[in-house]
Amino acid sequence: MKIGNLDLGIFPLFLAPMEDVTYKSFRFLCKKYGADVMYTEFVASEALIRDVARTKRKMTIFEFDRPLAIQLYGSNIESMVQAAKVAELAQPDFIDLNFGCPMKKIAGKGAGAGLLRDIPKMIKMAEEVVKAVQLPVTAKTRLGWDHDDQPIVDVAERLQDVGIQALAIHGRTRSQLYSGEADWSLIAEVKNNQRMKIPIIGNGDISGPEKAKALLDQSGVDGLMIGRGSIGRPWIFREVRHFLNTGEILPPPTVSFVVENVKEQLNQSLTWKDDPRRAVLEMRRHFARYFPNLKDFKELRIQLLRADELEEVIQILDHIAEIYADTTVDYTNVGLK
């Protein structure tokens, strides 16, 4: 699969861009366990062109990241064009346009999935950004706004026609947010449309290797993008790749293995955050997902989520490893919340 001249190999696995999730420490673990392509967190175009420090910090690229895209969102075409030029200076491998975020604070302001309510503006925005930069430009979107408005087949053609070089599709509408099942039939329809020549990447409900294989077989997409299924399970990329290559399910990880990886992610956060307490707080979303289905774990989970000092977190993690030792972690029926 290629994005422009960027060769991503045969059937790459993508870590989906996720706000407050795909920062350095989490990307590090996902890359370690086989994610082929990475994205930054969402970068707001208006904040970027105003030179907001926190926004510019999101664009910091580390060598382990590559290939990596900076993902931009916004509702103003000129601001997106200017932001793309600024992002290009950070030297990502490509630039991605967020036409899919369903959250009210983004979509409600006409950005992200909000552009699905103004398709001509979405297409014009993509066209102008493509013309403004030398790097390949890709996009990520959804099936449509709601059940009665799912224009993705036409939208995909039009994005291709203005120069978008790969398209990731989340198999839900904006109104669904993350509820219900992702509909991969329309993703398959886009992929099998004879007019489509660019790579199509499927996203939505990839909760494990068997589900990944089933969705691949159903759709025939060029790559899979894993988002919420990787939170608390960054080794899902290794599990999916192994199953696709061999048809074998890898043994589940032990609690000790998970604890060591949580510590590694925490250490990566500490190299990035100036304040250890901020690094701990950043990890809370991940703490909530790392130890599913463990018996009598509720109190320890609460302790992890309440701890705000590094030493306390390490003590709790060591206690978890001691109590559960070689117990394996069961991902059966773990929802993609």
CA-CA gap between termini: 30 Å
Which band does the percent of strand residues land in? 5-15%
Helicity, in percent? 40-55%
Instruction: Write down the overall mean pLDDT.
Output: 93
What is the CATH superfamily classification of the largest domain?
A: Aldolase class I
Note poorly predicted spans. Answer: none
**What would the CATH topology of the largest domain be?**
TIM Barrel
Number of strand elements: 10
The major beta sheet can be summarized as:
8 strands, parallel
Shape: globular
Question: How many separate domains?
Answer: 2
The helix/strand series, from N terminus to C terminus, equals EEEHEHHEHEHHEHEHEHEHHHHHH
The number of distinct helices, counting runs of at least 4 residues, comes to: 15
- Which structural class matches the secondary elements? alpha/beta
**What is the C-alpha radius of gyration, as a whole number of Å?**
20 Å
Kindly provide the name of the CATH class of the largest domain.
Alpha Beta
In CATH terms, what is the architecture of the largest domain?
Alpha-Beta Barrel
Strand order of the largest sheet: 3-10-9-8-7-6-5-4
